[in-house]
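Minutes, project check-in
Item: structure for the 150-residue chain
Input as provided by the requester:
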Amino acid sequence: MDLLKHVVVAGEGELIEMHGPTAGSISILVDPAKTGKTDLCVLIQTLDPGAAVPVHRHEKAEQVLHFLSGCGTVSLSGHETKAEPGTTVHVPKGVEHGIANPGDTPLSFLEATTPPGFQEAFRHMSRLPEPTPQAIAKIARQHDILISDG
């Protein structure tokens, strides 16, 4: 086993800077590009103050979100709850969910997704010259991220 493919020490994840409505950063820790065949993706997402992950759903994937720092809100199937350090949210396939950081400090959470694929959406979104909600939604749709219209 090649440990370099399967062990990520602090600060060594692939860092992606996000802009626009989802401003912040994403550190990809586990994905097929690094490990080869794998059935999940693990990353840490940090939302800047005022940023949000829009309400969306996944038809093929489920997720676990574990909040590490900051304080925000999670919408899960139309119900809103606090997202603070230690909160864990399981998102089954097909369930609408979103995350908002209305606070004045960054909101960070560990995200595990199976099957993988969203990391590619984040890579594409980070390269958008103008990350408008429409441009983000177009890329998202290509990766099983179905953003709600309202």
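Outcome recorded: The longest helix spans residues 118-126.
No further action items on this chain.
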